[in-house]
Amino acid sequence: MAYVVVFTGLLMNLALLVAAPRIHDRRLITGTAPNKWSVMYEILAERPLITILLILQLLGLSEAAATTVKIIQATGSAYVRTLPNSHSTMLRLIGALVTMTGVTGLWLLGAIGLWRRRNWAWWLVLVLNGLSATVSGALQMLTLNQFLLDIPATITVVLLLLRSVRTDFRGAKAATGQVAI
Predict the structure, then answer these.
(1) What is the pLDDT of residue 159?
(2) Is 146 exposed, middle or buried (0-12, 13-18, 19+ CB in 10 A)?
(3) This prediction's pTM
(4) What does the pLDDT look like over 118-145, one tens digit per residue?
(5) Radius of gyration over alpha carbons of the chain, in Å?
(6) What is the rounded CA–CA span in Å between residue 127 and residue 172?
(7) Would you tell me which of 3, 34, 139, 160 could form a disulfide with 62, CB atoms 3.0–4.6 Å apart?
């Protein structure tokens, strides 16, 4: 459920906050309204690597949001309440809930920053996905009978380290008049 909600919400924001102004401007210039889906395609096709990174980041956001929802469900379950150490288990679940809510917020912040080509977002997304890929790789080595690798996080790290993506984020900072490092 959380997967669908995240993608639907972000698609609506893309349509309202990015595509709607372009459609309005073209309507003023040409006098006719362009096709909404062609404008959405143009927006996504302008920066294909950033679009792929955004989609991969949204997958991570969806996973974090789904985990947060599952922790909320576990906190209210009858099973947890009937455990002999239910109080300490509830405290741990609440701690995990707060942590996952923060992680979900960071994934969302990274996705928005990537789309807006912010230099700090490149670093944030690299750290989040690097940690996810590293932890899943370590868990995979410990548990060989299950597939635990986080393929989207690994692909995101590889894409972020491509020269064209790095220069795109450094170029965005240099274009605003700041010195690129």
Answers:
(1) 93
(2) exposed
(3) 0.75
(4) 999 999 999 999 999 999 999 889 988 8
(5) 20
(6) 20
(7) 3
Which residue shows structure tokens 């912040």?
Answer: 109
Digit-coded pLDDT (tens) for 88-122: 888 999 999 999 999 989 998 998 888 888 999 99
Type of residue numbered 2: A
Give the separation between CA 45 and CA 47, rounded to whole angstroms: 5
Contacts 24+ apart (CB under 8 A), 62-65: 62/2, 62/3, 62/6, 62/7, 64/100, 64/103, 64/104, 64/107, 65/2, 65/3, 65/5, 65/6, 65/104
Structure tokens at 4: 């669908």
pLDDT of residue 180: 42
Task: Mention every residue, 6+ apart, whose C-beta is less than 8 A from residue 131.
Answer: none
